[in-house]
Write a structure and sequence with these properties.
Strand order of the largest sheet: 5-6-16-11-12-15
Distance between the termini: 45 Å
Shape: globular
CATH topology of the largest domain: Rossmann fold
CATH architecture of the largest domain: 3-Layer(aba) Sandwich
Largest sheet: 6 strands, mixed
Helix content: 40-55%
Oligomer: single chain
Strand content: 15-25%
Length: about 400
């Protein structure tokens, strides 16, 4: 399929290019010293990603340890409450550790092992990436440091406990707004001092090349499975698919299975409390081109052109930019990016819980909320939601701030 001049038959061979660019977005805006570290990671990845031994080991881990493939569930009662449109969910909440994050964490940790590294470090917001990486570190016998904002540590106490039980060192970040951006800042600073002995396992399709490409490739299994499963289940492709987008790892992997198909694709950003700068984290809707954390994308900026403060009820979505591939697909128009506010997300959280017996992560609830709105607009058809994580981590926070609806 050719869309606005881009041939999606050959998309994954051309994007990103050798310098890590998706069109004008991406790249590696880092110090010369870190460029050497990134080149080491890139060379190692391109060496082993085509290795039969690496591929076989990753497939074995996915099957025997992660519990893949995750299923698709027909959300029949939710669908019937909305009309004729049928909703389905790709159940990444059933992936080991409760979210899609383990898909790339096991790949990154296996890469670290191949490179002879002793430690892996990362940032986390909602805690799911931290838990997944702590799990991977325990599996491979690696040390693990997880940087997490103080605000998110309070919001995501169950995941903090899980990381510690798994043996990770959780480093509290108290600078700035004490959320995801600051955690990334701190993790990058630590990596700059330790890169010879460790690798920074970025938690999304963010950062300098090769991470946006590498994380997408590890997450491609979600879209690949979902496409095959949906066709087997229904005999056809879905009319639309949707996923939440913060940095965008779950969406990038999910969307990758459908980019070359006649399917409407929707990415859902967090509108938070509203359109005022600082009240949301909808970078693709309200941002402009900019550079942060070593990559060029679309980002929210303050009056000085620096990354703006952001907010979302979902800790995993409150980041002032999105991955460079999302910026590229946004400008291309292949993916439509919309927004869902806090109230809509929490309402969807309870609807899915009550009607289907599935408690979703608040991040995933943004995608559910958008699917509900889309179903009301469509007359007939089907929508496949990427249910990127489960809501165990969010229950105490939701009850405290929103009660039981």
């Amino acid at each position: 399929m050719i869309y606005n001049g881009v041939d999606f038959d050959t998309y994954f061979k051309k994007y990103p290019d050798k310098d890590g660019f998706f069109g004008e977005y991406g790249g590696a805006y880092i110090s010369d010293e870190l460029k050497e570290a990134m080149k080491e990671i890139t060379d190692a990845y391109f060496t082993i990603c085509k290795s039969r031994k690496f591929i076989d080991e990753l497939r074995r881990i996915r099957k025997e340890f992660q519990g893949r493939p995750t299923p698709i569930t027909h959300l029949e009662r939710l669908s019937n409450s909305l009309g004729k449109v049928q909703l389905y969910a790709k159940r990444e909440d059933l992936n080991h550790t409760g979210a899609h994050k383990l898909n790339h964490c096991m790949g990154e940790a296996l890469l670290a092992k191949y490179m002879g590294k002793k430690k892996i470090i990362a940032e986390t917001g909602a805690g799911q990436h931290g838990v997944a990486l702590a799990t991977a570190a325990a599996y491979f016998g690696l040390e693990c440091d997880i940087y997490m904002g103080a605000v998110d540590i309070k919001k995501q106490a169950p995941n903090v406990a899980r990381m510690k039980i798994l043996g990770a060192n959780v480093v509290e970040v108290t600078e700035g707004l004490q959320t995801l951006k600051e955690a990334v800042d701190a993790a990058f600073a630590a990596y700059s001092n330790e890169y010879k002995d460790c690798i920074y396992c970025i938690g999304s399709v963010l950062g300098p090349h090769p991470f946006p490409m590498m994380v997408r490739d590890f997450q491609h299994v979600v879209g690949e499975e979902a496409r095959a499963q949906f066709v087997e289940m229904t005999g056809e492709l879905p009319d639309a698919i949707t996923a939440c987008v913060g940095g965008g790892s779950n969406a990038a992997g999910f969307f990758s299975g459908f980019l070359n198909d006649p399917v409407e694709i929707y990415g859902v950003e967090p509108l938070g409390r509203g359109e005022k700068l600082g009240d949301h984290a909808a970078s693709l809707k309200y941002g402009t081109k900019g550079i942060m954390h070593g990559f060029n994308s679309i980002m929210l900026k303050d009056e000085n052109g620096e990354p703006a403060p952001v907010y979302s009820v979902a800790s995993g979505l409150d980041y002032p930019s999105s991955g460079p591939e999302h910026a590229f697909l946004h400008d291309l128009g292949r993916v439509k990016y919309s927004t869902v506010d806090d109230e809509e997300a929490i309402d969807a959280f309870f609807k899915l819980s009550r009607l289907e017996g599935i408690i979703p992560a608040i991040e995933s609830s943004h995608a559910v909320a958008h699917a509900i709105k889309l179903a009301k607009e469509m007359n007939t058809g089907s929508i496949l939601i990427n249910l990127s994580g489960r809501g165990d981590k969010d229950m105490d926070y939701v009850i405290e701030h929103y009660g039981i609806r």
